[in-house]
């Protein structure tokens, strides 16, 4: 069967690999139909992704068709033939984080396509409890559920109050997902970005019109739009050390900063500034099963239109040559998707 392998930074290959035939105990055998291309994949291609080793079959934003279900005593809400999205976080279930309901930051976390091989292949087996059926949700949308869940989880971490001013820094796919679910949570959302095309996308596709061009005195632009104030919650979704260091300056006194993106180095901040503002600093990692349920409910209700998000498509045969170009902002990628159909 076909599999796309990231051999080393900057080198993708299309390989023929053995195909699994049946699911084992508590497993499902899935045929991959769509794979969303995430910032994680792009950073891994550039050699800048935490927790990543090579060679690796990437792919954790997945829509799959169930081919076989192994022996299990679990009560599964799907059957052979169903199309499902995938929860790609394989947690232990026993550590202190899992016992407290925070399976998203399990001490033994393995993420498909990062720590272990993922879904850029025609079929694979995975734990049966990591699949969710979403009635009435199109297959392309299913492949974007995990991305939206990252934003939903970040929004939940901030404990947004209705009407609260929120700033999302970075309008890549994760930033867009965060902005979308901060808006769903009731925030008055502002987005800051260096790419004008992505700012235009926020206005046209998300209905967000508080926009900040990060290249031109951004703090002044933020204050001007908020009557001299700063936002009480800020999400940094850039994965840029420079942006993450600067993000502290955009948070109002008594506000919260949520670091959604992450880098391979250290983040430092001014302790006098941090204390004088009594800031709350939060990390947001992965998502929980409740986040997946929230996202699927929103998609099922028709409250989110994902059609404009998918700007680029590839097949297994074309992705090897096209992938590198998706890192270039000039190519206008909002969301790229791999199709195995």
What does this structure look like?
With 341 residues, this protein is α/β, with parallel strands linked by helices. Helix content is 26%, strand content 25%. The chain has 11 helices and 17 strands. Helix 4 (145-158) crosses helix 5. The two termini are 13 Å apart. 44% of the residues are buried.
Write the layout of secondary structure elements.
Elements: E1 2-8, E2 11-16, E3 27-36, H1 39-45, E4 61-69, E5 83-86, E6 89-90, H2 96-99, E7 110-111, E8 123-127, E9 131-133, H3 139-142, H4 145-158, E10 165-169, H5 173-184, E11 188-193, H6 196-206, E12 210-213, H7 218-225, E13 233-236, H8 241-247, E14 256-259, H9 271-276, E15 280-283, H10 289-300, E16 310-314, H11 319-322, E17 335-339
Parallel strand pairs: 10-11, 10-13, 11-12, 13-14, 14-15, 16-17
Antiparallel strand pairs: 1-2, 3-4, 3-8, 3-17, 4-5, 5-9, 6-7
Order of helices and strands: EEEHEEEHEEEHHEHEHEHEHEHEHEHE
Radius of gyration: 20 Å
Instruction: Tally the beta strands.
Output: 17
From the spread of the alpha carbons, the general shape counts as globular
Per DSSP, what share of the residues sits in E-state strands of 2 or more residues? 15-25%
Low-confidence stretches: none
Number of helices: 11
Through-space gap between termini:
13 Å
Concise synopsis of the structure shown:
It is built from eleven helices and 17 strands. It is of the alpha/beta class and 341 residues long.
Supply the key terms:
341 residues; alpha/beta; six-stranded parallel β-sheet; 11 helices; globular
